[in-house]
TrEMBL record:
It comes from Dinothrombium tinctorium. PANTHER family: TETRATRICOPEPTIDE REPEAT PROTEIN 39 FAMILY MEMBER (PTHR31859), TETRATRICOPEPTIDE REPEAT PROTEIN 39C (PTHR31859:SF1). Keywords: Membrane, Transmembrane, Transmembrane helix. Pfam families: Iml2-TPR_39 (PF10300). It comes from the Eukaryota. This is Tetratricopeptide repeat protein 39B-like protein. The chain crosses the membrane at residues 113-133, 163-185. InterPro entries: IML2/TPR_39 (IPR019412), TPR-like_helical_dom_sf (IPR011990).
């Protein structure tokens, strides 16, 4: 029901959840007292699984209910049920640690894989929620740690021939194709994707999820033509809508990375009926049409583009009564089409940055040259126009990002600092300032200058607020600081090991 975003189906699913809860409750051993300690070795395997399944059903119904009833009241109601369920799931870790008697090792493996799959999924869902909601959830005890969620899922995936392993493989594939780019730092684990592909090919060689992993690997390696072939093979056969949406998405971006904007728009058009994020799909579709028109001086799209960009503000979604921050970005940027500065508007390149897609598109040298040439030609027309510093800063920022990706880091840092030096001239696109500081921090982190990196990254977080992409950057700041902490720890361990070897 979530994949289809069908309200009637969600209602039916919530009713089925209630039936599940009744069923599991019959097998769920009641405590005689709140203060009594439970001896889980005295529980049967069926009762142990009922404990876990009951808690998972509680959380699942709460999450689905939050999407179904998008009011804040619906969120609060779901949060109460979620809290109860989450406490039960956390208790599952205690059961796994302390329970000594299992009827068979495989029973324990199935339990562990399911538990870790769900814990991983839960951590990631909470981490990716809008900031105000995640703050509320953190207050009532939910951590929402993205890296911890990944660790749980990867651990579950290693417990082969279990439902938890298969489900974790599916979710990890989704994370490395989508979430790591939308919310993270654009660093997919191709080695893990290949392991998932190998497992799925052995078990389910002919199903769509296996093909999706194969297409994703080609896509992430910049083998776009091969990825398109795989997508076309699936799209030529009748599949559920959500399967078609996934392959249409991959196919569309493969065309976009090759500057085949019209083909990219055509592939994206099939997602306009998708309810997952209408504002996003309409914005991407219009952006590809705009890039095609911009490159060919085609005027025939103007009426359609005006209609689409005007419609986008009406398509925003809400979760728990709060707007989704990506939608805020699409609404704001869509209105650039109606300004007299739309000649400098490069929506696809903005998306390449916002979603870390430069990590993919710049793997091809010809793309580097094409993008830099586009930016150079536009910069030449605006750099001496003091009334258009926002447009100039936007183009300069994109150029700096490209230079950073091709290891011309000194030039990139200089451009980021030029934007920051002229911060008072930036009137509207304040997010460029925070992101410039953040990107300087990433350059220092890449070169293991961790003190400077942390200083710049914290500047991006503390010195700027109220800008368009604040929620997104806050999330990436936490990811980046976690990465630096890990690298510092590994570096210290290496030095200690080296000193120990030298002393011996």
């Amino acid at each position: 029901s979530l994949l289809k975003m069908d309200k009637e189906m969600m209602k039916m699913s919530l009713e089925e959840f209630e039936k599940l809860l009744v069923l599991f409750n019959e097998k769920y051993r009641k405590q005689s007292s709140v203060l009594s300690r439970r001896n889980f070795d005295s529980y049967s395997d069926e009762e142990i699984h009922a404990e876990l399944s009951y808690s998972i059903a509680l959380v699942g119904s709460a999450l689905l209910g939050t999407v179904y009833d998008q009011s804040f009241a619906g969120f609060v109601k779901g949060a109460y049920r979620m809290t109860t369920g989450y406490i039960g799931v956390r208790e599952g870790l205690n059961i796994l640690k302390t329970r000594k008697i299992w009827s068979h090792p495989r029973v324990k493996e199935h339990y562990e894989a399911l538990l870790k799959f769900f814990l991983g999924l839960f951590e990631i869902v909470i981490a990716c929620m809008p900031a105000k909601l995640s703050q509320i959830l953190n207050f009532i005890g939910f951590s929402g740690r993205f890296e911890k969620g990944i660790d749980y899922l990867e651990s579950a995936f290693t417990i082969k021939n279990t439902f938890g392993s298969i489900a974790s493989g599916v979710i990890l594939g989704f994370i490395y194709l989508f979430l790591e780019y939308f919310y993270g730092l654009g660093r997919s684990k191709l080695d893990m994707m290949r392991k998932i592909e190998a497992d799925f090919s052995a078990m389910f060689p002919d199903i769509a999820p296996t093909a999706a992993v194969r297409a994703s690997i080609c896509y992430l390696q910049a083998d776009f033509d091969k990825s398109i072939v795989i997508c076309d093979e699936i799209l030529a056969v009748q599949h559920p809508k959500y399967i078609q949406y996934i392959f249409s998405w991959i196919k569309s971006w493969c065309y976009a990375y090759q500057y085949k904007w019209r083909d990219a728009a055509l592939a994206m058009h099939s997602l306009l009926e998708c309810k997952w994020s209408p504002a996003m799909f309409y914005y991407i579709y219009a952006s590809f049409l705009f890039m095609d028109a911009n490159g060919s001086n085609e005027k025939s799209y103007d009426a359609e583009l005006r209609e689409i960009f005007s419609k986008i503000p009406t398509l925003r979604l809400k979760i728990g009564g709060h707007k989704v921050f990506h939608d805020n970005f699409f609404v704001d940027r869509s209105q650039n089409y109606f300004t007299d500065s739309n000649h400098y508007f490069l929506p696809a390149y903005e998306l390449f940055y916002i979603w870390n897609y430069f990590e993919i598109v710049l793997k091809l040298e010809k793309n580097v040259e094409k993008i830099l040439e586009d930016l150079k030609s536009r910069l030449a027309t605006v750099e001496n126009d003091c009334t258009r510093f926002d447009e100039y800063a936007q183009l300069l920022f994109l150029k700096a990002v490209v230079l950073k990706h091709i290891n011309r880091e000194i030039e990139a840092e200089a451009l980021f600092k030029e934007i920051l030096k002229n911060s008072k001239k930036v009137k509207k696109d304040k997010f460029l300032l925070a992101h410039s500081a953040f990107e300087i921090g990433r350059i220092h982190a890449k070169n293991r200058r961790y003190l400077e990196a942390k200083s710049w990254i914290m500047k991006s977080k503390k010195n700027y607020s109220g800008y368009l992409t604040e929620c997104l950057l806050d999330f990436r700041v936490e990811r980046m600081l976690h990465q630096i902490k890990t690298e510092e720890s590994e570096s210290e361990s290496f030095v200690k090991d080296q000193n120990a070897e030298n002393s011996n």
